[in-house]
Amino acid sequence: FNSYYEQVGERLARDKRGMISRPALDRVRDYRRHVDDALDRYLSRASSADFAKVAGIIELGMAHEQQHQELMLMDIKHVLSRNPLAPAAYPKKLAAAGEAGPMGWIGHEGGLIESGAGASGFSFDNEQPRHKEWLEPFEMADRPVTNADFAEFIADGGYDTATLWLADGWAWVNETGAKAPMYWREDGVFTLHGLETQDPDAPVCHLTYFEAEAYAEWAGANLPTEAQWEAAAEGFDPVNGDYMTPGQSAHPRPVEAGQGLRALSGGVWEWTRSAYSAYPGFEPFEGAAGEYNGKFMCGQYVMRGGCCATPAGHARRTYRNFFYPHMSWQFGGLRLARYV
């Protein structure tokens, strides 16, 4: 999945791939049909024994494609955001009502818990194996941090107060001159639907880890660990959350009133304070797929939950997304936690 790139010549840097305008869309579709037709022919002729040999890698390939569906939306949004005319990839979204209300807290007794994916159903290798974690008692915010919440942080001088930031985070602020989240504008917020009015009740989106950590410090709380997040997320729904489905908004919808952990499924990926590393007893996929996750376990942080650009059914309670702390082009926000 990775080293083979090095065998076909000079690689195009990842941050430049969004600038490629060729091959044209019709050629891409032709190639997709070619691959689909070839796979259909193989599956229609394969014996049960042959299918059993390839079923795992085919399922992995489908999940990998879903990941890139989301990555393409991230890249499309970033490229369009550079255009001064703020063009839209999709028609204007329908206005969605919501009232986040005050942030509440839901307690968890902690103790010895099991974390990670089990043996049944599909999961990536980085979700395995299921293992035990010890948690001290904690509370999790009942909703993600909203645009209105984050605007208070900005108004209180959050981007100008060095004591709120990690050392690398403060260096990032000074290097980039950041004063607000990515895609915030004086006259609204840039979305895949073009320039939109900022909804104060929607989850704040496109934060770096540095920004999420600084906000948590300002709020007198923490980012949750990924084990805390997973233990608390019993109501996680991989299908019916705020995911990317036809005709639905390609931007986080406002948080609605309700009970339990709200806006947990989809909306925004939520930063955790956990470094992306191997679980105890981790074993990578066999063969070429062995490089799928393990070689990236350095210098990145885990995000949980799924977002409005994640295909419905792709995310799981145990899903571990991961990004470098300075990155914000992913649909990333945060939910607070605190020890009790």
Provide an overview of this structure.
With 340 residues, this protein is an alpha+beta fold. Helices cover 27% and strands 14% of the residues. It is built from 6 helices and 12 strands. It has helices spanning 25-45, 48-81, 147-155, 167-176, 209-218, 226-232; strands spanning 105-108, 111-115, 131-135, 138-141, 184-185, 188-191, 194-196, 269-275, 301-304, 321-323, 332-333, 337-339. The protein has a 4-stranded mixed beta sheet. A 3-stranded antiparallel beta sheet has the order 1-4-12, with helices on one face. A 3-stranded antiparallel beta sheet has the order 5-6-7, with no helix packed on it. A hairpin with a 2-residue loop joins strand 6 (188-191) and strand 7. Helix 4 packs across helix 5 (209-218). The longest helix is centred in the first third of the chain and has 34 residues, at 48-81. The radius of gyration is 21 Å and the shape is globular. The model has no long low-confidence stretch (mean pLDDT 93).
Helix/strand order: HHEEEEHHEEEHHEEEEE
Structural class: alpha+beta
Major beta sheet, strand line-up? 10-9-8-11
How widely separated are the two ends?
43 Å
Counting H and I runs of at least 4 residues, what is the number of helices? 6
Mass-distribution shape: globular
Helix fraction bin: 25-40%
Low-confidence sequence ranges: none
Radius of gyration: 21 Å
Q: Characterize the main sheet.
A: 4 strands, mixed
Question: In percent terms, what proportion of residues is strand?
Answer: 5-15%
Number of strands: 12
Mean pLDDT: 93
